[in-house]
């Protein structure tokens, strides 16, 4: 059964012109448009006559109280089962507004609040709002008229452009609290914190939504110290620490129906003194995937145990931590996670890289479309030291019937899918190498198995001059003595492996190799 779309708005007489514009833009896009008219004793004659309009008058001579912007929540109890979108009278809305909002709600299985205007608090080390300053002094804004290429997770939403399914989240009229004008945005932020509901600032094109400066310039919203103080008090009323790590993604995550399903992918992430902000971003980018059927094993490769502090507040049961007794190298760590792997697919992910939220759903769709596929490799985005980003697609379209003659590099192996059973037949991952062995695995897959490629560049491969990455560290970077010797040795052993009749035989040859350098 198709869910109905309810759109709710609150307004007051000085902004009547904006009210009329918004009604005319939104009315054709919804099943009902609910208006809470503060300060009105009569329905404005400029409003269109429509059975889809439902109006509450909250003027001086009316029975309904003036609720300010919190009037948007008036119908939550009456229409809890459909899509509930909230709009304002100072924004220009496009013809596809409700369509795109509904798609965004469904993307998160109706278990998130989606918005085009996100906010997050600048917090102290304990997760509290610092003393001093009003609302805007300790908030970060992601404005609704700006371009966003991917979804991000925030702590607050702008209810002039938000949506959700109330019954799925347990949202009722009771979320409105505090004095009038203390902020419907704050109500939603507090409700989300208390109930561990994610707020998603959805991807949008620039100026898909535009401010109506004739009604109320954006900057004017922050010039009233009395209103700012009310909003500030509401934010500070949250007794527990706000959960936000230093970055753009909050640790609230979408809980869709797939959460109850068995994991399909084990993501293996190794770290050796990775800068905390990089590690946190990498971990969050995996746990915040729209594809929920995965688990993440983070392996500390003999580095400082302090690495776990940046992950301490993540309560996601899909996150596992593992300490190696000494620094053995990334392949030895990955070999350990393959040994422990209980899922159909295994995937490596570097601790200084990050993935966009749809990366794993994209490669899994490819995997599920071809039951014979053993390896799925995607493209990636090369993030250069100066911040420039270059998308790189897989270099070849592998064919099942063609055996490789030499090592063939199709793409980076990170962020791809490797069938766990295939890895074990291929001899696992040779932990005696410090770099380059993933090229041997790609060559083995091309020679003996079915490889698919996906043109998704959502894996962000960070290149830096700080030595964090193996490809940039002096000992193992491109052109280094160790890397050159490793490639030469793998070429020699790989030639022997290609003469084998089966994958199992070839895998034994590669796994038995112990480099002598």
Radius of gyration: 27 Å
| CATH homologous superfamily label of the largest domain | Spore Coat Polysaccharide Biosynthesis Protein SpsA, Chain A
Terminal CA distance? 66 Å
DSSP strand content: 15-25%
Low-confidence stretches: 244-260, 398-407
Count the domains: 2
Highest CATH level, the class of the largest domain: Alpha Beta
Class per helix and strand makeup: alpha/beta
| Residue share in helix | 10-25%
The CATH topology of the largest domain is Spore Coat Polysaccharide Biosynthesis Protein SpsA, Chain A
How many beta-strand segments?
Answer: 24
Average pLDDT taken over every residue: 84
Which CATH architecture of the largest domain would you pick?
A: Alpha-Beta Complex
Layout of strands and helices, then pairs:
Blueprint: E1 5-11, H1 16-26, E2 32-38, E3 53-58, E4 83-87, E5 91-92, H2 97-107, E6 113-115, E7 118-121, E8 139-142, E9 152-154, E10 156-157, E11 161-164, H3 166-169, H4 184-195, E12 199-201, E13 210-211, H5 225-236, E14 265-271, H6 276-287, E15 294-300, E16 319-323, H7 330-340, E17 345-348, E18 354-355, H8 359-369, E19 375-378, E20 380-383, E21 389-392, E22 417-419, H9 420-425, H10 437-448, E23 451-454, E24 459-462, H11 481-498, H12 503-511
Parallel strand pairs: 1-2, 1-4, 2-3, 6-12, 14-15, 14-17, 15-16, 19-23, 20-24
Antiparallel strand pairs: 4-11, 5-13, 6-11, 7-8, 7-10, 9-12, 17-22, 18-24, 19-22, 20-21
Helix pairs in contact: 10-11, 11-12
